[in-house]
């Protein structure tokens, strides 16, 4: 049986509907991305594991999408079905962005963050790209000590992995460890956990009908500045419009701009772990910038 026929059969079994016109879009992080048309005319997007079971990663994405949707702030594709090897979502048709759409996105992102979270972390095992993400909450319920949690759950594991993989030198590691050692003074004023996307680079925002829809989350209770720093990391268009609209809804804490490099350390470490030493210089530059806070 051809690959597309097998994929159609897997989606059909998961959803209980006949599936036609399956098209493979490509491969990313161990998953085959595809679209398909259901018997009722709906078009869906799917992720199929290439081999074995990837249930934790698919479940994390499904849980994150459902949780972000509960905020009723930004469009999120509906989860139609998920199992150990397949995730099927409502397909979000892509359009173009604009200044007006960016402003609407910024205001809606502020409202999503404000929906909050019970604690830093999440009640499900997390994933970011192809890497596990430790969502264990702080030891003390109600803690607003984001800095210690960030260092323990978001920096140390990936720093250790990158060094073990020889993607970072000892000198590189010491640059980030210097930030970890001062995390209490660098983290900024205490804030309660926000409901964040967790991997909000520009490619994880799809523009549809004049609004920005969220895809591929690493969702958890985190610091709202994390999402904004991630938007800045790879050059989101209309970022000034997004930030202006965001702060009109919810002002940011004093000094937030100086903390952008601190929040970028985690995604940069993830990139080092995934893609190697080519990101090491950007990581260490961010670490040095964070220490200037």
Brief digest:
With 293 residues, the protein is of the alpha+beta class. The protein contains 10 helices and 11 strands.
Walk me through this protein's architecture.
The chain has 293 residues and is α+β, with helices and mostly antiparallel strands. It is built from ten helices and eleven strands. The protein has helices at 3-15, 55-69, 99-114, 146-164, 170-181, 183-186, 224-233, 239-249, 260-275, 280-290, and strands spanning 19-28, 31-38, 43-49, 79-82, 86-90, 126-128, 131-133, 194-196, 205-208, 211-214, 220-222. The chain has a five-stranded antiparallel β-sheet. A hairpin with a 4-residue loop joins strand 2 (31-38) and strand 3 (43-49). Helix 9 (260-275) packs antiparallel against helix 10 (280-290).
